[in-house]
Amino acid sequence: MSMEEDNKVEEPVAVKEFKSGLTWRSVFACIYMIFVFTPAIIWFRLSIVGVAVGGAVSFCTLLIFVEISRLSGNPITKHEAVILFNLAVLASLPTNYFINMIYREYFVLSDIAHRFGVSQYVPTWYAPPAESGVWELRTFLHPAWIMPFFVLFASSFFAIFSGLFFGLLAREIYIETERLPFPLQMVNVDAVVTLTERQEDRLAILTYASIVSLIYGVLLYTIPTASGAFGNMIRFIPVPWIDFTYEIEKMLPGGAFGIGTDLVLIAMGLMLPFRVVLSMFIGSLAIFMVLNPLLVNLKMTNWATRWTPGMDFSLIWRESTLWFWACPVIGMALAAGVTPILMHPRTIAKAFKFGYGGSEERISGNPPPKWLMIFSFLFGAGGLIALNWWLVPDFPLWALFLFQVVFPFLLMITQVRMLGVTGQSFSPPYLSQLTILASGYTKYDAWFLPFQLTPGTWWCSNFKICQLTETKIESWIKAYLLCWPLAMIMVFVYVSFFWQMAPIPSALFPAPAIEWPVTATYQAIWITRPIGFFDPLLIIEFFIGTAILTALFDFLHLPISMLSVVVGVNTPLPSTFSMFIGAIIGLVLSRIFGKTWFNKYRATISAGFFLGEGIAVVIGTALALLARAIWMRPY
Q1: Most exposed: 63, 388, 467, 553, by fewest CB within 10 Å?
Q2: Does the pTM of the predicted model rise above 0.85?
Q3: How many CB atoms lie within 10 A of CB 558?
């Protein structure tokens, strides 16, 4: 069986009736998410390191609106549920944009930027100059912010359409032509269908799994979050993993090991095919327990000189990636994504027809209009190139084309394939930095350009959810474009309010004090032209080696997915180990209850884990916000 056949899933041939999910209720649900959950997400982002709550918003909002609509006698449809579920990203994604604007001014004024001698070279379209006084005023309402915000909004808007183009292209390749399974999107679909259609058997299992996950989530997130807000954090379980690196280094200097503590990792192990999880675990294990210690022992590469006894897992992961694995990962990722397509060229040739005049029955609705594809590409990718060239006219145009057109295409065929097969994807690191170095441009202003990688991975994953729920993708695109401006405006207002409340960073908002000095250090190192960080020869060598192994595994039909191995290489070992535990649990459940039962309900069990933990996170955040509000009272 070829890799193309192995990744394919049988789809029903019957013609499906696709319906729109864009209604006043789905739009109102999005508005509710933005107004209610965004402040909690902002507080979490500013207060706690290493925990993301964006995923919890979608499950909680879905649960709330499903129950309200049912009690009103007009249950919400699965098509409406898909729209509100997927639009939850608008409650969290813009948060990073505006908090990053504050970071930019922090960088301008930081001792780090002064020490590296770059603060005076920061363009005013990136951040206001130090003498503007916006840092002391703690406000966005200042003329010095006009250009930085113009660049932010313009680049973000262009990126939407560029990503839409590549997402639509990926839809034709991986949903329509290859028909990849997208296993983790199945979890979201199962949650939507179970809650909206109220299938009793699935609903019971979803409830039990949610209760278990909720209890665990209270211990993992709710109690530490709430107690920390009151000034005395009580933590029962480490987040994001239990670190055993100190014990490992006694036997394997340079090695690192841990166990991921998030129950969602177990859920992912239940959902993904066993060979995928095993391959990811092998890739991660090889890096952290074999190759990293070997490099340290042989004193090879800059990573060996960076390792010191006492480093924890996070530090080993970061330093080994920065000082050695960045280039190999780029080569491996490209080879794992490109090689299967080169081995099966009919797949991509067939997909580029965009479904026009094809003989096979389409499974995801009508093909994208040609005018939409052309407009999205020209307006999106073209707009990003024009914006960056306008900001830095001396920067080579070919380098901008490489970053905004060639790289997104390569990442699209790499990332979306990974997502479709393993449920995981990643972007090779430092591509913007590599582009600047390869261009030969020597001035500092290019290092502040608003580069946007837009491979369309997120768009395509949502198109898969739409396909599985018979929801028109047109309604999803319209809903996102309709709610995006509101989300940007409200996040602007909320972040401004939090900044007025207290300085960022401060005792009230401690997370940036931990993260921003590290980020600023790496940014300054890049700007001052690091020597010895990257070796292009490594990219070529690992590309060739991975391509050979990928072709060999495909030819021999070995039960190891090279694509999944590459995903594991770029995933921390504690995460893949917990996923492997989940896969073992899946085998046990399959043995006890039978394969038919397990295949029918495993997505429901996984959805329950997501739902229960999401509720625990939101409860903890709400209690923390309440505690902060009480603490801020003047009496």
Answers
A1: 63
A2: no
A3: 13
